[in-house]
Structures are given as structure tokens and as C-alpha cells.
Design goal:
The complex is a heterodimer of chains A (253) and B (221). With 253 residues, chain A is mainly α. Chain A is built from nine helices and no strands. Chain A has helices spanning 2-13, 29-45, 49-66, 70-95, 97-120, 123-132, 137-166, 178-208, 225-246. In chain A, helix 3 runs antiparallel to helix 9, helix 6 runs antiparallel to helix 7 (137-166) and helix 7 (137-166) packs across helix 8 (178-208). The longest helix of chain A has 31 residues, at 178-208. Chain A is flat. The mean pLDDT of chain A is 80. Chain B has one domain (10-214): Arp2/3 complex 21 kDa subunit ARPC3 (Orthogonal Bundle). Helices cover 73% and strands 4% of the residues of chain B. Chain B has seven helices and two strands; from the N terminus they run ααββααααα. Classes of the chains: A mainly alpha (253), B mainly alpha (221).
Chain lengths: 253, 221
């Protein structure tokens, strides 16, 4: 258990690591968000192999351009594999190989688009994009606070994990392992206790600096030419895939 | 139980999105109406806590593990509307910051885990007599997981029935999801109950604060 947990902690730590190095970093976050979501919606509507292959080629090209290390993408993709694999496997059993392949590529493509968006956009730019696209203020604040507090607690959890290990906790064996569950329950409980104390302190600190619930950043970005190119590329691929899917445009391999 | 994009038939995820967003809008409005000075940071602390608690895997049997969803825990601390709001927040962060769970599937994930999970837990907690509070929370946690997973299985089966290139055949989806989650639900029940018992013993003021925020929706002590 503890190795899995440690892996996940590392994964959280990694989340913004490649965002600042990526070639897609400088693109407007709002545009990236809208393009990615639209493409995912288009992908979700595709049922044939040919249009999916077009989108797959495009997504792989973007992935290659993005400069995000392949290892990072592959590792995060692997985390989604059990679900993708299960869906494809049942499709193989009930509807044959073609259906399984379509299912696999469709889910895989969507996961990849999201991963690319996430790995090339720093969190606070993403939040800015949400606000620019009129997400309600309270919802945006809640998301922002939650995200900040997650990192605060990672430290606490790491310390508690070390303490657990030092006392000989081994993760337990099965659902009947009473001691394992008592320890996990106490760990989660303690997270809340520490959380509560910290929440007050942090909020006091924010108030004393004049926090009113609004979040402002220095950056005021304007879409540039290259953003238009990005929109154009996503739109072309999306429209092409839909045309092929609906049979308006014949596609022969 | 996090559904990814591309798995469900369009009709299903569009309908799911519409229903889920209606509930989320209602939940945020309800929470906002009672908005006090510290409501947002307090809810965010709980959301962050549950987000991290979801990362703790518990052993089931033979190497398989399950993890907490936390709907019942959130309901016990915040009431149903607050719970819907924070589980939704967690799902948005998981989807758009970590790429875990899809965007088109966000509606269905919200419906299963935030809406159905929270309302099921709330229903059970409300129906339980006060003196059986802890067992009530245990049953609520189990019901939240089991009903959420059942809803997920039904959506998969419906998707497949509408269009065979989507979803998973009900013959496979229903028994596997319901079977697995009836066991995962036991873990959720044990953890949720021990967290609440722990808080009541070690930090009753946490429950007191939640109670104040939830104002009569659920008597936590």
C-alpha cells in the first residue's frame, strides 16, 4: 500500500513540472482549454475506425510537438489503462475485434488529449481560463483553495506515513485486518484535525492581507496569431473527422 | 469508478451532464445562501482532505485494493448540498488537473459519486434513529458506494443497448460493478465510521463546526 501511496504523491508533485518547459506553454490557456474540450467531445461522438485514426494521428503529432517527455505521458496513460483495457476487453468478447479497437482508440485518444492539456498548462493559468469562461466565483474559489490545501497536507501525510512505517505498519492483508483499518481511519481523521487548525490560520493570514474572495493575477493575456493557428488546426481535424464519420467525405486507406 | 471519455454513448453522457449540472447548480446555490465568513475555506479543507483520503488504498483480498470516495463522510460533516459541492470540486480537479476521469464523463461521474452517493448517504443517515448514529453512518457509506456503482453499471449497460460500439454489455457490467463495489463499500463503511468516531473522540470541535455549518441538516453529535 505504501509504495502505491508514495507513487501517487510523486505524481502530484510532478503535475506542473513539464508545464513550463513545453512548447505549448505560451499558448493562451483559454484557447487550449476550449480546443481540447471540443476535440474530446468530437472524439466521444466517433464510432468508426477511420475518423478515429485521423484524430489519433493529430493527437500524437501534438504530443510530439509539445515536448512533454514520453515517459511522463506513458506513465500517466498507464494509470488509465485498467479502465480502457476492461472496456476494450468486454467489447472484444461481445462485439468482436473491430469494436474493441474502436473502443480502445476512442478512450485512449481522449485520455491523451486531456493529459496533454494538463501537462502543458500550469494550474493557475487553468484557473484563470475557468474564470475567463465565467465559472461562478464561489466554485472557482473552492477549487483554488482545495488545490492549495492539497499540497499543504501532502507534507503532513508524508510525515504520518513515516511515523506509521517506523511503528511497523505494513499496509494490512485483507478487509478483516482490524488494525490496518484502525490505523487508516486514524490517519484520515488526523488529516482533518490538522486541516481544521491550518484552515483557520491560513484564512486569517489571507484576511490580514486584504483577501476579499477575488483572485487577481498580473497576467492579462491576449490571444495571438499562434493561438489562431492552434484553433485552426483543432477545428480542421475535428471537422474532417466528423465529415468522414458521417460519410460526407469518403476516406480510403 | 471514474468513467473516462469515449466510453459512454453520447445520449447518456449528455443527459448525465444536464442532470448533474442541475444538481450542482442547486447545491452551490443552497450553500451560497448560508454562506458565512469561513464557509469556503472550511469546505476546501474538507475537499482537500477527502481528495487525499481517496489516495489511501485499503486491502480487499489477494492484492486487489479499493479506495475511499468520501461522499458519506462529506455528508456527515457538511450535509447533502455541501457534500455534492465538494465531491464535484474534487472531480473537477481530478479531471482537469490530473487527467483522471473524463470531461464529457464529468456529468456522469458527478451524478454517480457526488449526487447519488451524497443523497443515498443523506437518506440513510436521516432515517437512522439518533442512538444508532455510527452504525447508520456505516450503512450510509456502504449505500453511497453501492448505489453509485450500480448507477454507473446501468449507464454502461444502457450505452451498450443504445449503440453496441459504446458502453459495456449489462450481462458483464452489472454483476462485476455491483459485486466488486459491494465489497469496496464495506471498506468505505469501516473507514468513514472510524474517521467519524475518531473525530468525535479527538476533535469534537471539528464536528461542532460542521454542525454549525450544516444547521440542522444532520445532527453530528
Amino acid at each position: 500500500m505504501d509504495t502505491v501511496e508514495a507513487d501517487l504523491l510523486e505524481r502530484i508533485d510532478e503535475i506542473d513540472r513539464y508545464a513550463d518547459r513545453s512548447r505549448l506553454r505560451g499558448y493562451d490557456a483559454r484557447i487550449k482549454l476550449v480546443c481540447s474540450v471540443s476535440l474530446v467531445v468530437v472524439i466521444a461522438l466517433l464510432r468508426d475506425l477511420e475518423p478515429l485514426l485521423i484524430v489519433l494521428a493529430f493527437v500524437l503529432a501534438i504530443a510530439a510537438l509539445s515536448n512533454v517527455p514520453l515517459r511522463h505521458l506513458a506513465w500517466n496513460f498507464a494509470l488509465a489503462l485498467p479502465f480502457v483495457g476492461f472496456a476494450a476487453l468486454t467489447a472484444l468478447l461481445t462485439n468482436g475485434a473491430d469494436a474493441a479497437l474502436v473502443m480502445f482508440i476512442r478512450i485512449g485518444c481522449s485520455v491523451l488529449v486531456l493529459l496533454l492539456l494538463v501537462s502543458t498548462t500550469p494550474f493557475f493559468k487553468m484557473m484563470g481560463a475557468f474564470r475567463a469562461l465565467h465559472m461562478p466565483k464561489m466554485m472557482a474559489n473552492l477549487i483554488m483553495f482545495t488545490y492549495r490545501f492539497i499540497f499543504l497536507f501532502l507534507d503532513e501525510m508524508e510525515r504520518m506515513r513515516t511515523a506509521r512505517l517506523a511503528r511497523g505498519f505494513d499496509g494490512g492483508r485483507n478487509l478483516l485486518d482490524k488494525r490496518a483499518f484502525r490505523t487508516l481511519g486514524a490517519t484520515i481523521g488526523m488529516t482533518f484535525v490538522r486541516a481544521n487548525a491550518r484552515a483557520s490560520n491560513i484564512y486569517d493570514a489571507l484576511l490580514s492581507r486584504g483577501y476579499t474572495g477575488d483572485v487577481r493575477t498580473f497576467e492579462s493575456s491576449r490571444p495571438r496569431t499562434r493561438d489562431a493557428v492552434l484553433v485552426g488546426a483543432f477545428a480542421c481535424v475535428g471537422i474532417l473527422a466528423i465529415l468522414v464519420e458521417t460519410g460526407v467525405m469518403a476516406w480510403t486507406l | 469508478m471514474h468513467i473516462s471519455d469515449g466510453l459512454m454513448a453520447p445520449v447518456i453522457w449528455i443527459a448525465g451532464m444536464a442532470i448533474a449540472l442541475a444538481f450542482v447548480a442547486l447545491a452551490f446555490r443552497r450553500v451560497e445562501r448560508r454562506l458565512e465568513d469561513r464557509t469556503v475555506p472550511y469546505m476546501a479543507i474538507l475537499a482537500a482532505g477527502i481528495f487525499l483520503a481517496q489516495m489511501l488504498n485499503f486491502p480487499i483480498i489477494g492484492g486487489t485494493t479499493g479506495h475511499l470516495i468520501g461522499a458519506a463522510l462529506a455528508v456527515a460533516l457538511l450535509g447533502p448540498w455541501g457534500a455534492i459541492a465538494i465531491i464535484f470540486t474534487i472531480l473537477v480537479i481530478q479531471s482537469l488537473v490530473f487527467g483522471d476521469g473524463g470531461i464529457t464523463a464529468l456529468g456522469l461521474n458527478t451524478l454517480n459519486m457526488a449526487v447519488i452517493g451524497s443523497l443515498a448517504a443523506w437518506g440513510v443517515i436521516r432515517l437512522t434513529p439518533k442512538r444508532y448514529k455510527l452504525p447508520g453512518i456505516a450503512v450510509a457509506a456502504w449505500a453511497a458506494v453501492f448505489l453509485g456503482a450500480t448507477a454507473c453499471a446501468i449507464e454502461l449497460a444502457l450505452s451498450h443497448a443504445i449503440d453496441p460500439s459504446y458502453g459495456i454489455d449489462g450481462i458483464i457490467a452489472l454483476p462485476s460493478m455491483m459485486g466488486l463495489h459491494s465489497v469496496i463499500g464495506i471498506g468505505e463503511a469501516i473507514i468513514t465510521t472510524s474517521v467519524i468516531a475518531f473525530l468525535a473522540k479527538v476533535a469534537p470541535e471539528t464536528l461542532g463546526m460542521a454542525q454549525e455549518k450544516a444547521k440542522g441538516e444532520f445532527d453530528a453529535t
